[in-house]
Amino acid sequence: MNINGKHYRTIWIKEDDKKIVQIIDQRRLPHEFIIEDLKFVADVARAIKDMRVRGAGLIGATAGYGMYIAALEAPKNGFDNFMISAGNKLKNTRPTAVNLGWAIDRQLNAIKQSNNIEDKIKIAFETANNIADEDAEYCRMIGQHGLKIIRKLSREKKGEPVNILTHCNAGWLAFVDYGSATAPIYAAHDTGIKVHVWVDETRPQSQGAKLTAWELLNYGVPHHIIADNVGGHLMQHKMVDMCIVGTDRTTYTGDVANKIGTYLKALAAKANQVPFYVALPSSTFDWQMRDGVKEIPIEEREAEEVLYLDGLHDGKIEKVLIAPKGSPAVNYGFDVTPRKFITGLITERGVCKATEKDILNLYPEHK
Ligand code: MRU
């Protein structure tokens, strides 16, 4: 994505110091664009936990680079044990996005290929870059497959704008580039297809209002931010042509974990015959879990995120209490949408139904 004329990925190795990884602190967006250095595994763990970086793809890429940083930090004696414990530390930061464990295990397997420490560091560097490059390329391909669906809708609407509802941020900021749910939208916009996006605000952390809206504005895609409860009304009144959301973990049977509130949108979509698509790279499939509702771990975060809001006031970011002092709150980060509510999965290999059979046909190596 270009920001002020410069192309940025969401994570990269510092140009003049290959031992430093740089990220954009997403907690400060859309009001401040701040680049942060990560030098130690503890910095990487904090960045994931505090959600300076977030979104399944970017969490995975950050964990990949985190393992490279761990390799630089590891003592010569006890290198492998240090790497395993760094991997566990990173895995414990956030439980729902499966890309996290996937990237760490990929790194641990890769560095096993050599017994030489210098080689292991080199392998960790290359593997981190491969994970990031693959994430960006897979999202680009998701864009091309999803574009076909939007193009068809645009033809059916005789060129009138295609209204797409999305939840949370499954955009460039949630991946290394392009995004999953946003990639087809950007691809459509690039080819001149008229699109308009309904952006769910996505309380409590407002990733829709803060991040997705900022991305779309920056890319020039027409959009409106809506409060979280508006989608059902819009669907009832035929103001939504399709929904596209991302996912943090999708079982190989097609159940989708995504930001809290996704399930309610899927229910409203089903009731109003609005197609409901989920966009994901293969790194977000869980090839072990069968029953998403029963098995996917759902992150619970601080109640404070529900009780307070933050935003710009007089040029400064400030936090305000919106609930009575003393009222408790609970904060479930994700919910699971069962496969029967999903029209299709848009992956880097193409679009398939959210069923075990169709997913495994697309990814036969996991049969
Ligand atoms: O808590 P976050 O911001 O890391 O969660 C991100 C999401 O749930 C997004 O909705 C997204 O679809 C999944 S990440 C591609």
Automatic annotation (TrEMBL):
One GO biological process term: L-methionine salvage from methylthioadenosine
Active site: D248 (proton donor)
Domain of life: Bacteria
Pfam family, one: IF-2B
GO molecular function: S-methyl-5-thioribose-1-phosphate isomerase activity
Binding positions (substrate): R54, G55, A56, R94, Q207, N258, K259
Pathway noted in the entry: Amino-acid biosynthesis; L-methionine biosynthesis via salvage pathway; L-methionine from S-methyl-5-thio-alpha-D-ribose 1-phosphate: step 1/6
InterPro entries per UniProt: IF-2B-related, IF-M1Pi, IF_2B-like_C, Initiation_fac_2B_a/b/d, M1Pi_N, NagB/RpiA_transferase-like
Family label: Belongs to the EIF-2B alpha/beta/delta subunits family. MtnA subfamily.
NCBIfam families (UniProt xref): eIF-2B_rel, PRK05720.1, salvage_mtnA
Record-given protein name: Methylthioribose-1-phosphate isomerase
